[in-house]
């Protein structure tokens, strides 16, 4: 099929960017979206033009490195699907596709569609862990965890850190990302000792990185490839208030 | 002469003996010692975090935009540990002997025993980090069974065990970054190793954003840069996985071992067209409940659900009644190839076999199957637009894991003093075939439990050594060579992309040095890869500049893959036997099984680089078995 592309091109964070037009013939419906981008870049090399820079790695929806705004939606038209898992069968012959980077003040553009998501690492550095140094661990079955608790913790832990929640949020909020880690560790017995300090440190860091606040639109949950629930944001607020009252 | 430095004592005593006699570094002195860790997968992140916790200065490098992206994240099925929670006869020795046998008796006894010994600690460590492993209703940890064993020793977190273990290690690493013990360099690629007076003293990196070539000095360098299965282009690996860190270390003197031992994973999504960039893995855990079959009749074009039971060939159950659908990976993959070659393959390109869940759904109910594998069924649906609860999946073997890698001794040190290799980057524990759920284990054990003993043992001697800084001439020379190579790529200005060369190389390797090899196929592949390599240096085309340039990154990786591809073929050619994943068609039994030759080939190959225009030199580390007898590996 024939596809028309309008892609954001920007050389560096300091230079202005613009949408640029491209056309591709011979796009197969079985191609993944990123294979379509490979095809485009192959054609640009043949024309001696600089390729479109985009982030991607595992191409199986788990590493969280890929991510583009496709026709105005984070990761494209499907719900709960990463860009790399999107296939061209979701488009039809003659379609025009708008491709832009994940935009947020806390995610500066590196080049074209590549953005810098170090702010997420900073939030984890603040306290997104249990302080269990190598060698300190007790016998694993010494900590019993109910099946339902383990499953609920997993649901939160499944986040791949792609940033689609931030990109899709009108406030560029990172609360879905941050609350998922807070919930996982607040649910598990291993996370109890640092529970109060953790939520305060992570929320403060999230604010310091320049992410906005949640106004309950819930668009993030729709786009999240791992279906992380917005209920975690409610829990985060509960944990934050609990920590503020009880321990601070 | 290669010295594997196996400690004295009985098999069960060796690791304790080692730990009891290892040199220590005083806590006050640790902050004077710098360690570089390349790679942030399970091995790299756990090593960097653990060394940071001990008080060393650690620099951690990865080419991805965050350490959390490393490809350990994609491992699905599980991690093995000899906890014997199921009371089903498991033990450290049982796990050791399963792994030795699984590797077709081509790994070191002492290393493998240590892997089994440390496995239980890993589960404890991961649980303490908050890794949400599957639990029974009573709150105890759950297990499942994996290929090549008859006990249930695999711990799992749905189909995302690698992700959860990696996030545990990543969080431990981030904790050390927050504590200023570890500094991370993301979007950085190692392009050379710096060796001074025969010892590893640093690396040269390229900042993939600014393009700047940087010098980093250290008292020890750790390569945990993963495997090189992406050499086949179509593989289960991430697009950025590469051999550059280990290959460039190889060119500086580190030997490479078992280079042609590549595992082809039996349960991957088949290739469906020329555009394809990767072959997605579907966890081997699916084989616990899925049955593999092809039509009995060749070229049978009926839909799978229209083929009656008696016209189906459950070839694994037929050929290997004891292990059935849980036969080890090398055997399952080869059996699939045998059926495909016989004309019984299914799917658009007739290159696949069925993985059928109808019996399991009938017996256990759809909900139970959903709970175990829902993410995999969902992924299958996303890629193929097919509901696998109703129609069997199509699967086929794909290049997956490299048992080969840098030669290391018992301390995980390469032939260059001060250079360590961890996880998939080394060759150490899996022999000629890796058992499922042992790779997460090996990466973690290397990083959490071995490196924190063996690296300080080396560093203790570094306290009094002369401090090498980045002003040393060796850094200037290495930096110059790196810059020259990058400029060379940009100057060629031919007409073919790096991907073109990579895809062509992949095809040559699948044909010549793939699931099965012959003398003729290997010799042909060597000639063709040499031609391709010559063409690469005259016809490569890279657009763009010195800063953010994914084409320039690819060119360096493909250049290394072209060299490595030739060595893979040479390694396979020199080994005139079949063992594990290395199947030489000339050496097989009457019923088509691998035929080992223990008299002549019971050794680890260790290849020495002798320069760009010279042949590699083969060294041999003999393998000595004192605790298991060399049997014919049978899963029948």
Automatic annotation (TrEMBL), chain A:
GO terms for molecular function: 2 iron, 2 sulfur cluster binding; electron transfer activity. It comes from the Bacteria. Residues 150-179 form the 4Fe-4S ferredoxin-type domain. GO terms for biological process: aerobic respiration; respiratory electron transport chain. Its cofactor is [3Fe-4S] cluster; [2Fe-2S] cluster. Coiled coil: none annotated. Belongs to the succinate dehydrogenase/fumarate reductase iron-sulfur protein family. This is Succinate dehydrogenase/fumarate reductase iron-sulfur subunit.
TrEMBL record, chain B:
PANTHER family: SUCCINATE DEHYDROGENASE 2 FLAVOPROTEIN SUBUNIT (PTHR11632), SUCCINATE DEHYDROGENASE FLAVOPROTEIN SUBUNIT (PTHR11632:SF53). Residues 34-440 form the FAD-dependent oxidoreductase 2 FAD-binding domain. It is an enzyme of class 1 (oxidoreductase). GO terms for cellular component: plasma membrane. It is a peripheral membrane protein. Keywords: Cell membrane, Electron transport, FAD, Flavoprotein, Membrane, Oxidoreductase, Transport. The keyword 4Fe-4S does not apply. Residues 502-635 form the Fumarate reductase/succinate dehydrogenase flavoprotein-like C-terminal domain. The active site is at 329 (proton acceptor). This is succinate dehydrogenase. It comes from Mucilaginibacter psychrotolerans. Its cofactor is FAD. Belongs to the FAD-dependent oxidoreductase 2 family. FRD/SDH subfamily. It catalyses: a quinone + succinate = fumarate + a quinol. It comes from the Bacteria. Transmembrane segments: none annotated. GO terms for molecular function: electron transfer activity; flavin adenine dinucleotide binding; succinate dehydrogenase (quinone) activity. It is found in: Cell membrane.
């Amino acid at each position: 099929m024939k596809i028309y592309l309008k892609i954001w091109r920007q050389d560096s964070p300091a230079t202005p960017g613009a949408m640029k037009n491209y056309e591709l013939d011979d796009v197969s419906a079985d191609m993944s979206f990123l294979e379509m981008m490979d095809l485009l870049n192959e054609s640009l090399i043949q024309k001696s033009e600089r390729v479109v820079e985009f982030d991607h790695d595992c191409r199986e929806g788990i590493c969280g490195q890929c991510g583009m705004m496709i026709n105005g939606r984070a990761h494209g038209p499907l719900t709960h699907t990463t860009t790399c898992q999107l296939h061209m069968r979701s488009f039809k012959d003659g379609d025009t596709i708008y491709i832009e980077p994940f935009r947020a003040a806390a995610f500066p553009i590196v080049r074209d569609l590549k953005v810098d998501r170090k702010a997420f690492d900073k939030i984890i550095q603040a306290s997104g862990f249990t302080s269990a140094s190598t060698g300190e661990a007790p016998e694993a079955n010494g900590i019993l965890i109910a099946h339902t608790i383990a499953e609920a913790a997993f649901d939160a832990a499944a986040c791949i850190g792609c940033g689609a929640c931030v990109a899709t949020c009108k406030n560029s909020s990172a609360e879905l990302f941050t609350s998922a880690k807070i919930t996982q560790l607040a649910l598990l017995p291993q996370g109890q000792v640092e529970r109060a300090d953790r939520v305060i440190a992570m929320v403060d860091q999230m604010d310091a990185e320049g992410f906005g606040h949640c106004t309950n639109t819930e668009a993030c949950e729709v786009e999240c490839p791992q279906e992380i629930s917005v209920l975690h944001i409610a829990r985060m607020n509960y944990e934050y208030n609990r920590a503020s009252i009880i321990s601070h | 002469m290669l010295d594997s430095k196996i400690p004295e004592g009985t098999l069960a005593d060796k690791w304790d003996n080692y730990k009891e006699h290892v040199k220590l570094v005083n806590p006050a002195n640790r902050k004077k010692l710098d360690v570089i860790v390349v790679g942030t997968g399970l091995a790299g992140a756990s090593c960097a975090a653990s060394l940071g916790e001990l008080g060393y200065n650690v620099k951690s490098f990865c080419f991805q935009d965050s350490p959390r992206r490393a490809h350990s994240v994609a491992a699905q099925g599980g991690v093995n540990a000899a906890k014997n929670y199921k009371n089903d006869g498991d033990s450290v020795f049982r796990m050791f002997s399963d792994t030795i046998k699984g590797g077709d008796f081509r790994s070191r006894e002492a290393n493998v025993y240590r892997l089994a010994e440390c496995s239980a600690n890993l589960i404890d460590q991961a649980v303490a980090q908050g890794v949400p492993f599957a639990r029974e209703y009573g709150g105890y940890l759950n297990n499942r069974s994996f290929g090549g064993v008859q006990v249930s020793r695999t711990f799992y977190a749905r189909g995302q065990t690698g992700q959860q273990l990696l996030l545990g290690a990543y969080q431990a690493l981030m904790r050390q970054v927050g504590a200023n013990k570890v500094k991370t360099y993301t979007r950085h690629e190692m392009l050379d190793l710096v060796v001074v007076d025969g010892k590893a003293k640093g690396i040269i990196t390229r900042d993939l954003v600014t393009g700047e070539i940087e010098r980093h000095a250290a008292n020890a360098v750790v390569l945990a840069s993963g495997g090189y299965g992406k050499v086949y282009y179509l593989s289960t690996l991430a697009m950025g996985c590469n051999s550059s860190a280990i290959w460039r270390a190889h060119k500086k003197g580190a030997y490479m071992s078992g280079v042609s031992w590549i595992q082809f994973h039996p349960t991957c999504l088949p290739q469906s067209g020329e555009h394809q960039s990767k072959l997605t893995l579907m966890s081997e855990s699916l084989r616990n409940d899925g049955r593999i079959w092809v039509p009995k009749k060749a070229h049978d074009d009926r839909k799978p659900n229209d083929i009656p039971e008696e016209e189906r060939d459950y070839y694994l159950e037929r050929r290997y009644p004891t292990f059935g659908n849980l036969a080890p990976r090398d055997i399952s993959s080869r059996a699939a190839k045998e059926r495909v070659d016989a004309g019984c393959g299914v799917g658009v390109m007739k290159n696949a076999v069925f993985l059928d869940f109808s019996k399991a759904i009938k017996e256990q109910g759809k909900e139970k199957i959903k709970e175990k594998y829902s993410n995999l069924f969902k992924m299958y649906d996303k890629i193929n637009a097919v509901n696998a609860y109703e129609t069997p999946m199509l699967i086929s073997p794909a290049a997956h894991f490299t048992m080969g890698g840098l030669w290391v001794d018992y301390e995980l040190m390469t032939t260059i003093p001060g250079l360590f290799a961890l996880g998939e980057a080394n060759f150490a524990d899996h022999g000629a075939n890796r058992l499922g759920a042992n790779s997460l284990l090996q990466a973690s054990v290397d990083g959490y439990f071995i490196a924190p003993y063996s690296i300080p043992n080396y560093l203790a001697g570094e306290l009094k050594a002369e401090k090498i800084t980045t002003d040393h001439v060796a850094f200037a020379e290495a930096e110059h060579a790196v810059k020259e190579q990058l400029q060379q790529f940009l100057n060629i200005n031919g007409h073919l992309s790096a991907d073109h060369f990579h895809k062509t190389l992949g095809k040559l390797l699948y044909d010549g040095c793939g699931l099965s090899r012959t003398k003729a196929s290997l010799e042909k592949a060597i000639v063709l890869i040499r031609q391709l390599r010559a063409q690469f240096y005259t016809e490569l085309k890279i657009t763009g500049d010195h800063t953010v340039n994914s084409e320039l990154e690819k060119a360096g990786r493909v250049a290394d893959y072209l060299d490595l591809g030739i060595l893979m073929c040479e390694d396979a050619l020199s080994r005139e036997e079949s063992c594990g994943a290395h199947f030489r068609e000339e050496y097989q039994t009457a019923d088509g099984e691998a035929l080992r030759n223990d008299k002549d080939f019971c050794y680890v190959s260790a290849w020495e680089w002798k320069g760009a225009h010279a042949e590699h030199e083969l060294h041999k580390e003999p393998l000595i078995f004192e605790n298991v007898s060399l049997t014919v590996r049978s899963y029948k």
